[in-house]
Amino acid sequence: MVWKKKRRLHGKNQHYSLSRKLRRENKSNDEFEVMLNGLKLEELIGLKLELASKYFGGRMYGIPLWFSLKSITQDAMLKYALSATRAKKEAARLLGLSANDFRKLLKKYDIENYFEENKNNDLTNEN
Question: Percent of the chain, pLDDT > 70?
């Protein structure tokens, strides 16, 4: 049996898209996304840290980078899961979380407010 991709036209998460949000904010475009896709995740993180450290003269002393990794990664995974699925329950399953744990993390990282601007703009554009 061949797996068929379900269309994302319907579902509570239909307005959650990182790509669409970043494009609206002029932080991304097709060319940038193609270049970004060519990087490994490790390269992307390393490059982002290197660029951020230039602001501090090449050093970021006093910033607990190592201990912040878990929070940064969880935030990114929650945003991805909501972008990639049609419902929160499906996003929780994708991450291997219980519904209760998933709700707590959404609240902790304020993920729904991150996407809220997109949702309001999409609803206005549909009318």
Answer: 83
